[in-house]
Amino acid sequence: MAFVTITARRGSGEARTGALFHRAGLPVPGAGGDPAHRVGGGAFARDGRRASSVLGSCVGNGRRVDPTGSSPASDLPANAFMRKPVWVDPGTLSCQHSGKLELSLAAMNAMARDARAERGRESLVAKMQRHLAAILSADVVGYTRLSEAAEEATHHRLMSLRASLIDPCVREHGGRIVKHTGDGFLATFDSAPAAASCALSLQRALTAATADQPAALRIAFRMGINLADIILDNDDIFGDGVNVAARLQSYAEAGDVIVSEGVFEKVDEATKSLGFDMGEIFLRNHERPVRVFALRPGPGALPTRKIGESHAGTDARASIAILPFRVNSTRSGKSFVADGVVDSIIHSLSGHKELFVISRGSTLQYGQRRIDPVTVGRKLGVRYVMDGAVSLSNGRIRISTELIANENGAVVSADHYDGKMSELFDLQDRISLKLATTIAPHIRERELRRTLRKHPQNLTGYDLLLQARDLLYKMDADSFARAGGLLQQAMALDPSYAPPFTYAALWHVFRVGELGSPDPDGDARAAAERALAAIERDGNDALALAIYGHVQAFLLRDTVTAQRFLDRAIDAGPSVAMAWTMSSATRGFVGNGPLAVLHGEQGQRLAPADPYRFWHEGILAQAHYISGDYDQAIDWARSAVAHNPSIRFTLRTLAASLAAAGRQAEAASAADRLLLLQPDFRLTSYAPRCPFVPSILEPWIGHLRRAGLPD
């Protein structure tokens, strides 16, 4: 190994050597007896050249010596070599023996590069900042479809909206646009209230700005907001919180703003009044569910359905939500009595075309945490809310009720009903009659009495039914098995009572559709038999009529009989969400996409927060697929999967819709999720069991195959 040797002493030589080290970004050694710095390397100056000038130039710029004698700026291989070493010209530095430093030029270059890299890393760390921020992620709904229809016009309109509305609105609310994507943007705010206010203002302004455009060409945004620590680096932002905001946005619909619980907790009461609790959803790559809320922009908002929102307020009929009643009892385990009272009232009122009754499942969440009834009414979009309590003592029962008008919070009526426990069902009928005639005076009493449920002969069977129904909502294998056993006991204890047979039929339907029945044909027959038995016991049981119709179409392929019974179900219970959704499924099976969408939308409106909402949303997604609206199908399928990640038919719909929309990578991801749940899934065995007519089945199988599902 050869070295350029620099000999330094006090004076000009020492200063020159010090300057050289300073330019290299290295510690400057002292004069005299400093220990020599000796490192490896192998670059040399050419014969006769002044090594000091070459060294100074090369180290200062991080370049290697040119062995040919040309400019030192040339980049050479690290193993460049010379014929022989040349020492420092005595005319440049005095060669006295007060100190010696030996370094190879290549080593000096390497040390200089390392020093600059370290300074760069320190500078990078200094530029990277971490702080708490509200992240707003926004995306244009159906941008691919809009671009395919009119690419240049769509791009021009989007750029115009950015300049005139989006960027100014973000600035006015103290935010910063981090980046514009092709069809959306990412912004940060110092506070959650500022981000929420900006998003809602934007949605209102965008609605007004695009109101005169054709619906098919209208630009609408979905938005998501999350509050989290972010990393700010060179004006861009990073971190898991940014990903969460983007994923929340993907669950929103047009005009919707979906926010995390952390954001919702920090906004003011006025903003909270625009919100709806969507419950917990699973986000991709997150093991734990995230609780989220949907914010409606309020006046001027887009007239679209929101995931998790009832839209009962858009219906001309009187609408009502019955909240879970409180229980006051000296004995534990009597909550089933209050549940039964609410269930009976809902069942009776659901038989009226003049009333719009929110499903029982959609109000269950309000039994666990008491919320002002007016707030609940506004969230569910109903005109009336009924709250109540059940008191039990020494065989006596008192049912207290309060009917509240949501418009002004006024109490329309407050009543109490006293009797013996053995008179429970008569009390329920009296409450239903009073309630219906109070909020809809034009309902004839005899029509109400037609819908009153036939009551059980004993409370034990009734209790078993209510326990089984609550277990059915959970949809896990253990709860499902226990529910089946309880329903068997309830049917045996009171063979004349219809509801246990109705829910037993539903149990068999879900066993075939989602729980991996070991005997699908046997379960199909059992479902039909149980539903028919319920109809024989109560011909006005809308749920029994709907289940029997669904079994005929889904399991037995008799769509003519199915549609007849489904029409009867809707006529018997126009506010029974399951009747509308099952009708949507059958209309889709036969290829009537538009009617399937209409019926699916009605089912979803009636069950905005039902434990089975994943099923309602999944059927609506399927209806949109059949209608050819793949963007809507994807949106509803994603919402359904978020509410229940293990439902297979929804994953099939999601995979097929993504493939049909040309989003291959996302389709493959959905297919992979399905195969994790059902590793033995094969198209060749699935296709013969699929209930679609051939005109729907052929492209459906093709899209599933394109998504990557195996034959």
UniProtKB/TrEMBL annotation:
Sequence ranges assigned to domain Guanylate cyclase in this UniProt record: 134-249
SMART domains: CYCc
PROSITE patterns hit by this protein: GUANYLATE_CYCLASE_2 (PS50125)
Gene Ontology biological process terms in this record: cAMP biosynthetic process; intracellular signal transduction
GO MF terms held by the record: adenylate cyclase activity
Pfam families registered for this protein in UniProt: Guanylate_cyc
Domain of life: Bacteria
PANTHER family, sorted: ADENYLATE CYCLASE, TERMINAL-DIFFERENTIATION SPECIFIC-RELATED (PTHR43081), PH-SENSITIVE ADENYLATE CYCLASE RV1264 (PTHR43081:SF19)
Protein name, entry field: Class 3 adenylate cyclase
Taxonomic source organism: Bosea psychrotolerans
